[in-house]
Amino acid sequence: MPLDNQLGAKVLKLLAYCQANNWAGYDPYDALNSRIFAILPFLNSRLPRLVLTQALKRSPINLRRLLLIPKAQNPKAIALFLSAFLKLSRSGVAEAGSFVEPMIERLIALRSQGVRYWCWGYSFPWQTRTIVVPTGAPNLVCSTFVANALLDAYEHRQDPRCLSMAASTAEYILDKLYWTDGNSIAGFSYPQPNLRNQVPNANFLGAALLCRVYKHTNEQKFLEPALRVARYSAAKQHADGSWDYGEAASQRWIDNFHTGYNLCALQSIGCYAATNEFESRMRHGFEFYRAHFFREDGAPRYFHNRTYPLDIHCVAQSIITLLLLRDIDPANVPLARSIFQWAMNHMWDERGFFYYRVLRSYTIRAPYMRWAQAWMLLAMSMLLCESMRNPEIQDSTAWLKHRDASHPRSCDPEFPAAELEHCRV
Fold first, then answer.
1. Angle 18-23-29 (CA atoms, 0-180°, nearest 5)?
2. Is 344 exposed, middle or buried (0-12, 13-18, 19+ CB in 10 A)?
3. Is 375 in contact with 313 (CB distance < 8 Å)?
4. What CA dihedral angle connects 409, 414, 418 and 422, to 10 degrees?
5. Quick check: helix, strand or coil at residue 102?
6. Can you spell out the DSSP letters for 157-178?
7. Most buried pick, 38, 166, 175, 400, via CB within 10 A?
8. What pTM was computed for the model?
């Protein structure tokens, strides 16, 4: 079966699976939703919470029913579905268009409570090394993905509600999360407003959203803080082009999908702020990304220096990143197709969903809704958009011929908005 025919058929099957589950499901980090903590409150402390979260995340058997963990709708998953449906409806998948308005309504219903801004948090509490983030507590990353999906809807439908909600999210980031030492240091608090952690992907995502809202509203107040934060985190790029996940001693790792977030956000900042200030950083980061995160067979590595785990979120974000930055390297599109084909061969269940992770000795087959299905539906929708844009590109192995020989070529430093809109993340 030609790749594009297979892609379209699997999109419909995945869509049917997600709809049948009412867009709700389990999550790798939802252990603290277990009713066991209410039944046995002595377990509800930092160490048991950390142990249970990690044990469930790593277990080859999904024990969530046994532990009384309910399926839930996650705002970030709903946002990813919304962005995917907008793309699929433009690609001729008629069923997808009917889900756009219900997804907007779900995001309205799932907003964080007790906050005057439009912002969102996850459908579970989560334990960091030091604190517990409550269910629904607004955080930067979840809120930026939701606001970007609403802006996707605004750009496609001109629905003023969507722009108003996204602008409110930008106000939240500016008023509650932005901080600076008054000199060179600036950032956005994450995962909670009182924490001044420096996490590059969170900073870039927040800056990119502020720039996008600025583009639509002409509100100058959003632009300078966004650029200031982006400059700080851009300067933390290592000489080889990589970024650590965070600046804390416990955050010094380099992974696939957070690097993808960085690159896509820098692309967006360049577009919406009408600047090429970050282009060299983005290109250097992309050179590192292409050189370190893909196996010979197209499987995307999680970490830059070892193969396992092979994670479905990395599959999806790799496809998204490669397509969004396709003008940098002509081999990006065939590599994205190769990654999709690898995922179909190793992480697809014919019941209509994707597995979580492939490890050296076993596969974790849990069908996570946010981490796997929502991300993959968005990635597959972008592949369909690309097929319509360039129907002549079909060879999913052609990238291998160019892997070692090709070099990033020049592209328009203005990063045309139409190009970004085509593959908005």
1. 105
2. middle
3. yes
4. 50
5. helix
6. H--HHHHHHHHHHHHHIIIIIE
7. 166
8. 0.92
Distance between CA atoms of 269 and 263, rounded to whole angstroms?
Answer: 10
pLDDT in tens, 94-126: 789 999 999 999 999 999 999 999 999 999 999
Residue 221 tokens read as: 């107040």
Stretch (H or E) spanning 386: helix 375-389
Structure tokens at 40: 């046995």
- Looking at residue 99, its amino acid is F
Nearby residues of 148 by Cβ (< 8 Å), 6 or more positions away? 79, 83, 166, 209, 212, 424, 425
CA dist 330 to 133, 242, 398, Å?
42, 22, 10
CA–CA separation, 293 and 316 (whole Å): 13
Paired tokens of 63: 């024990």
Q: How many CB atoms lie within 10 A of CB 249?
A: 6
pLDDT tens string 58-89? 999 999 999 999 999 999 999 999 999 999 99
Phi, psi of 300 (to 5 degrees): -85, 125
